Amino acid sequence: MFALIHVSIALSSIAYTTFLFFRPVAQRFIAAYGLVAATLGSGVYLVISTHSNLLQSCMSGIAYLGIVSAGIYAARIKLAKERNNS
Fold first, then answer.
1. At how many degrees (to 10) do helices 28-50 and 2-22 cross?
2. Confidence of residue 29 (pLDDT cuts 50, 70, 90)
3. Where in the chain are the domains?
């Protein structure tokens, strides 16, 4: 059951980061960071509680973190460009 919650948070984080890229607002970045933290926290809990393979879990986590971080970074750049043009 908790794995389903973890996956839901991760997918929500990716969807929210995509939304944030297309409509960047400074206050919305806090929610994006919160979703990333919740995903990483629930992932750590799952690894500890289920004694799953750490290497596989870490590789998946690094891939997720790389994708979401790139999206957040791109949204930050887009927001900065919009502020400079105003």
1. 160
2. very high
3. 2-85
- Whether residue 55 has pLDDT greater than 90: no
| Full DSSP string of 66-82 | HHHHHHHHHHHHHHHHH
How far is CA 31 from its chain centroid?
Answer: 10
Return the SS3 of 19. helix
User: Which residues, other chains included, contact 82 with Cβ-Cβ below 8 Å and sequence gap of 6+?
Assistant: 24
Round the CA-based radius of gyration of the chain to a whole number and report it. 15
- Using CA atoms, how far apart are residues 6 and 32, in angstroms rounded to an integer? 15
Degrees (nearest 5) of the Cα angle 66, 72, 75?
A: 140
Kindly report the pTM of this predicted structure: 0.90
